[in-house]
Amino acid sequence: MNPEMLNKPSSANNYQDSYAPQAPVLTVKDWLLTLIVGIIPIVNIVMLFVWAFGGNANPNKSNYAKATLIIAAVVIVLYILAIIAFLLIFGMAGISSGMFDDFQ
């Protein structure tokens, strides 16, 4: 191995250069305020969109808001699918049992 290479600092060993500036840590007070705002109807939805896509929110809070919106969207889709399945199953059961014969 080349002796000059041993004395040169390697970029792989210099971890400070590879990290970007970090966002400030959210305090317990910040998280408490976030959770309190999260339980206020209507305001919580508006604030989730502001924190997720506003631009000047803490990146940690922004990621939390994006994850919450994704979970909410998945739950809404699952509810809609469950309602459709419920209506189809019981609608077909009603049709096959002759329940709707009086409406013809």
List the topology elements.
Elements: H1 3-7, H2 15-18, H3 28-38, H4 43-53, H5 59-97
How many β-strand runs? Answer: 0
- Note the total helix count: 5
Helix content: 55-70%
What is the end-to-end distance?
92 Å
- The string of secondary-structure elements, in order, is HHHHH
Measured on Cα atoms, how large is the radius of gyration? Answer: 27 Å
Percent in strands:
under 5%
Mean pLDDT: 84
Question: Could you give a short account of the major beta sheet?
Answer: none
Strand pairing plus helix content: what structural class? mainly alpha
What general form does the structure show? elongated
Low-confidence stretches: none
What would the keywords be for this entry?
104 residues, 5 helices, mainly alpha, single chain
Protein described:
The chain is elongated and about 85 Å long. It has five helices and no strands. The longest helix is centred in the C-terminal third of the chain and has 39 residues, at 59-97. It has 104 residues and is mainly alpha-helical. The mean pLDDT is 84. Helix content is 67%, strand content 0%. The protein has helices spanning 3-7, 15-18, 28-38, 43-53, 59-97. The N and C termini lie far apart (92 Å). 3% of the residues are buried.
